[in-house]
Structure formats: structure tokens, C-alpha cells
UniProtKB/TrEMBL annotation:
Organism the protein comes from: Bombyx mori (Silk moth)
Biased composition (Low complexity): 109-118
GO molecular function (one): structural constituent of chitin-based larval cuticle
Signal peptide: 1-15
Transmembrane helix is among the record's keywords: no
Protein origin, superkingdom: Eukaryota
Protein name, as recorded: Putative cuticle protein
Keywords: Cuticle, Signal
InterPro entries: CHIT_BIND_RR_consensus, Cuticle_Struct_Prot, Insect_cuticle
């Protein structure tokens, strides 16, 4: 009986050391940048919970009828399964075009992941 109790206590102690994903935890901003110039912008941030986002945009054909904004960037996060998911993207006249990837052990099957990309 003492052995069972000891094993239970060890299991509880080990489980307490395993990091878990908590969507309610407070994340700290580790890095933040924003630049705004005429005809372009750039921003980025990284958080302590693994979330990252970087983006830059450019104004094309300023003052013309076909004036538009082209954007490229990426964002990533650490999922509850411990896998990092990342989306690189461009957006412009042709719409939003993502390139989606996941780290080893990701939960999205490759055939579905491929169909999600632009």
C-alpha cells in the first residue's frame, strides 16, 4: 500500500512539472516594432506564449485608378499540442495567398494542409 501511495505522489509531482497550454495565461510582449513611412509600413511582435506576427505593406500605383496595397507577412503560434504552426502569406490584387506549415507532430494531415494553402 505504501508503494502505491509513493508511486501516486511521484506521478503527481512529475505531472506538475509538465508545461501545459493555458489560453487564459497572461503573455508578455517580448518584441514590438512599428514603422510607418509614406507608401509603406512594417510591424512585428513576439510574445512569451510563442505567438509571433510580422507584416509589411507597400502602396502601389499611388494616385492612380489602380492604386492598391500589397502585403506580405507571417504569423505563428504554439498549439495546445505543443506544435508550432506557421502561416506565411502575401495579399494584394490577386487576393490572400497563405502558405501553411506545422512543426513535427502537427495534428493537420498533410493532404488537408496542402489543400488549405493558396
Amino acid at each position: 500500500m505504501k508503494l502505491v501511495l509513493l508511486l501516486c505522489l511521484i506521478a503527481v509531482a512529475v505531472a506538475a512539472q509538465i508545461p501545459t497550454f493555458d489560453s487564459n495565461q497572461n503573455a508578455r510582449i517580448l518584441y514590438q516594432n512599428y514603422e510607418n513611412k509614406f507608401g509603406s509600413y512594417k510591424f512585428g511582435f513576439r510574445q512569451s506564449d510563442g505567438i509571433r506576427h510580422e507584416q509589411e505593406g507597400f502602396l502601389n500605383n499611388f494616385g492612380q485608378e489602380n492604386e492598391n496595397l500589397s502585403v506580405k507577412g507571417s504569423y505563428s503560434w504554439l498549439g495546445p499540442d505543443g506544435v508550432t504552426y506557421e502561416i506565411d502569406y502575401t495579399a494584394g490584387e490577386d487576393g490572400f495567398k497563405p502558405d501553411i506549415s506545422q512543426g513535427p507532430g502537427g495534428g493537420i494531415p498533410p493532404q488537408i494542409l496542402g489543400s488549405m494553402a493558396g
